[in-house]
Amino acid sequence: MELKARLVAEALREGFVAARVCKPGAVPEVADRLTAFVQAGYHGQMGWMADRMHWRGNPAALWPEARSVLMLAESYTPETDPLAVLDRPEKGAISVYAQGRDYHDIVKKRLKRLARWLIAEGGGEVKVFVDTAPVPEKALAQASGLGWQGKHTNLLSRDWGNWAFLGSIFTTLDLPADPAESEHCGSCRKCLDICPTDAFPAPFQLDARRCISYLTIEHKGPVAEDLRELMGNRIYGCDDCLAICPWNKFAVAASDLRYHGPAARAADLAELAELDDAAFRQRYAGSAIKRIGRDRFVRNVLYAMGNSGLPRLRPVAQRLCEDPDPTVADAARWAVARLPA
């Protein structure tokens, strides 16, 4: 069996749901798309996207010695309907990807094991990446044939839906490339229509400044008031456009049980609002949630409280009106003003 076939087989044994190969220069369209995205201001406060455009727009420049890119998908399909919690205003909705162990840790360890296998079997040099470097993973994934970028801009597949983390192994080995995948969304626009904040200016385009995932995770400071009320009880990320995709009928079980952790059980907003920094760090140790910090997290919780319409949450919000963090205090006052006495 040739090296590439054995590599793909090893990747599947490691738990990845799919593995395909492309060349680093297989995505020449990325540079223009990224430039247009940044020039439109769609990146919001994510200045690193503009700062690293040279690399993100040209994967071949990231490591000129690389000859091939192995793109891998790892499933994190939820066990229950992630939209159900949106009908429970007293609870905080946390995106599926962050409900368990931080995927960076799990996927990277898997990638490193696979990279060591590749070196032992085929030689060469490798670099592994999982959402922590200026790598256009979704474009490379489509170029490799893993799937295609849907109208919601996320990667999806006819074989495993769209619940997947992406990882990549750049190698100096010259591996045969797979054919690229084409788009199969057709006339469907469910992901566009379900978006609570109308964050898609057009199919295949995202204005991150209106995306709830961006607003709850990346955006620093107060969120515009007209957007706060559209966030509902989503306190970390948003899964609406992913969850509604019809291709999820082919979704496969999560690759690792650790993706379904304690946060899969939605917590009471009243409980989460009381977290101080130490309690927040302890509760979300080992989780992707930890990186946004207590202040931004409680800000999101208070917005959810203000949207709940539940009078019993008003005293909880009131206690935070003088919080040392001005953004938290602002969110608390906003929530108090919206909740019935």
Automatic annotation (TrEMBL):
GO terms for biological process: tRNA queuosine(34) biosynthetic process. This is tRNA epoxyqueuosine(34) reductase QueG. Coiled coil: none annotated. The keyword 4Fe-4S applies. It comes from Sulfitobacter alexandrii. One of its GO terms (molecular function) is epoxyqueuosine reductase activity. PROSITE patterns: 4FE4S_FER_1, 4FE4S_FER_2. Residues 176-205 form the 4Fe-4S ferredoxin-type domain. Pfam families: Fer4_16, QueG_DUF1730.
